[in-house]
Amino acid sequence: MALFSRTKKTEETQSQETAVATVGRKPQATDRNLESIIVAPRITEKSVKMGDSNVYTFVVAERATKFLVRDAIKALYGVTPVKVNIVRKRPALRLAGSKNRMVKVSGMKKAYVYLKKGDTINLV
User: Fold this and answer.
1) Is the pTM of this model over 0.90?
2) Dihedral (Cα; 53, 56, 57, 60), 10-degree rounding
3) Which whole-number Å values give the CA distances from 76 to 37, 73, 113, 121, in the listed order?
4) DSSP string, 5-33
5) What is the largest CA-CA distance in the chain?
6) pLDDT tens-digit map of 42-63
């Protein structure tokens, strides 16, 4: 029975397999659009105060991860973060106005980027 026999591949079939492998390649790490990860710097009283201790706050895209934020900060600002924390604020309904109407507050995702001493980001 030849069910489990191993046949040797010829050079033709091997070259065809490598040609197919190069056409359908996976996207590389450099194929990402890092500019779309950072939406905007978040400038509030708290974030300005945290900026004195080398912690900067950014509004980031919903699909952003810590690693994508780290790479985007490296590419856009030229500094390497020590640590990145991500917080997601979910959308909610709040009471607002004198008649206590329900208002929808939009959600967002923000990233706290920690830098080492001596590194700064000029946001203004």
Assistant:
1) no
2) -150
3) 11, 5, 13, 10
4) ---PPPHHHHHHHHHHHHHTPPPPGGGS-
5) 87
6) 999 999 999 999 999 999 999 9
